[in-house]
């Protein structure tokens, strides 16, 4: 079993370059990187329970893919595996949420479906750490405060990124439905005057839709920038990594959804153009 390193409450950072008896041991670059982004017994890649009990945890997960080590009686009341403070407690809840809510075969960090499945857990982590810093922030060291900012920046940007992609998808759907509705209206046109008025109305509606969407998008961007900016440089760096994670996980999904929308809209436009041509006296 690894050494008996104990993180200090309210200053639970792991020394990246000098692991000593840290349970996050190893002298490699990846080991140092894992310690750099870790805190206490739960925040960071994996956690102390899984690191010190890999065979047992693997056996339990073989029985139940959603095995939650944070609720296992074997560890739940063991002082060795307790959160060291409020930041770590939020991270423990986050770990448990990932175990309960992940989709089998979908990595919560590198697949779009996995990322969406744990969206609520990411938000709860950000809210939990924010509440801890709002109520007891003065008890934490500057190093711990910096860590909390980076954590909120990373997971907060994941939450905002998923929300933004969902918002964009809703707008694509709304635009497609709006186009479909306009083509349905065209069926009632009985003259060129009707067609002119109908097209003018649809153009005004489309203009309002674009204007409102642009205002919503700008409001979202401004709000996200304000949140991230309040977290200082650690939060900004964390946000860059978090948005990058969303881009990697969601890029292909967004492209596929957008292309499906384009194809569907294209078919609708082609059908509408055909009906309009027939209405104006052309060959059907």
- How many beta-strand elements? 0
Biggest pleated sheet: none
State the end-to-end distance. Answer: 79 Å
Number of helices: 10
Level of helix content? 55-70%
The whole-angstrom Rg is: 26 Å
What fraction strand?
Answer: under 5%
Tell me the structural class: mainly alpha
**Strand/helix succession:** HHHHHHHHHH
Instruction: Average the pLDDT over all residues and give the rounded result.
Output: 77
Low-confidence stretches: 202-214, 261-273
Q: Judging from the principal axes of the Cα atoms, what is the shape?
A: globular
Write a structural description.
The protein is mainly alpha-helical. Helices cover 70% and strands 0% of the residues. It contains ten helices and no strands. Helix 5 packs antiparallel against helix 7, helix 8 runs antiparallel to helix 9 and helix 8 packs parallel to helix 10.
Q: Topology, please?
A:
Elements: H1 29-36, H2 48-52, H3 54-63, H4 73-76, H5 86-101, H6 112-117, H7 119-136, H8 142-186, H9 192-229, H10 232-279
Helix pairs in contact: 5-7, 7-8, 8-9, 8-10
